[in-house]
Amino acid sequence: MSEDIFKVFILEDMPVDLELVKRQVRKFNPNVLFAVAKHRVEFQEKVVMFQPDIVLSDYNLPDMNGLEALLYVREHLDSTPFVFITGILNDEEKVAEAVLTGASGYLLKENLRNLPELLTTVVKQNEQAMAQREIEWERRRSNQIKLRKSIAQLRQANFAGSDELALSLQEVADNLG
Question: Which among 111, 53, 60, 109 has a CA at the least distance from the CA of 82?
């Protein structure tokens, strides 16, 4: 296990459930730092500033639901994994909606002992997705550099139509950026 601190944000209003979740997270990584919220305002004030490695959220909270929390995280911390830990998502439609909205997974509270295994899977998938994004970003950056070099060469070539072609390529390069 990595020596890095694993930052976990938990959105949970039940103190007993909160402690059980923390216990299971520590089994995954004992070097953990928690931030906790019980309601919307506290959640929105803390989550972005905390910059968690993962968000674990109940589905039903006093003044919001988990889908609202998930959408907030997707808007402000796009690549942060988000997992529902709840007793309520045994409805297949809600599970499908959560996953389609961008949840990384869900776990019923009755199966909380499986949380370390789920965290292993989610963290690994997120690392792979981030690596893929980095590869894609490098590919786009390389293509943009090649296009800009071609534009510069066309402008220097000074043949009939080279300026128009350079402008067209410039528009393509600008759209890639």
Answer: 53
**Which amino acid, one-letter code, is at 32?**
V
**pLDDT tens by residue, 129-138:** 778 888 888 8
Spell out the residues 6+ positions from residue 62 whose beta carbon is closer than 8 angstroms to its own.
Answer: 13, 38, 39
Question: Pairing state of beta strands 60-61 and 64-65?
Answer: antiparallel
pTM: 0.73
57, β-bridge pairs: 11, 84
Look up residue 72 and give its amino acid.
Answer: Y
**Digit-coded pLDDT (tens) for 82-101:** 999 987 655 666 666 666 66
What is the C-alpha separation between 18 and 41, in angstroms, rounded?
A: 18
The helix (run of H) or strand (run of E) holding residue 109 is none
Contact 69, 11 (CB under 8 A): yes
Query: In 3D, which of 70, 115, 65 has the Cα closest to residue 88?
Result: 65
Please name the residues in contact with 130: beta carbons below 8 A apart, sequence gap of 6 or more: 79
Tell which phi-psi region holds residue 60, choosing left (phi > 0), alpha (psi between -120 and 50) or beta: beta
Q: How far apart are CA 112 and CA 123, in angstroms?
A: 17
Q: Which residues pair with 9 in a beta bridge?
A: 35, 55
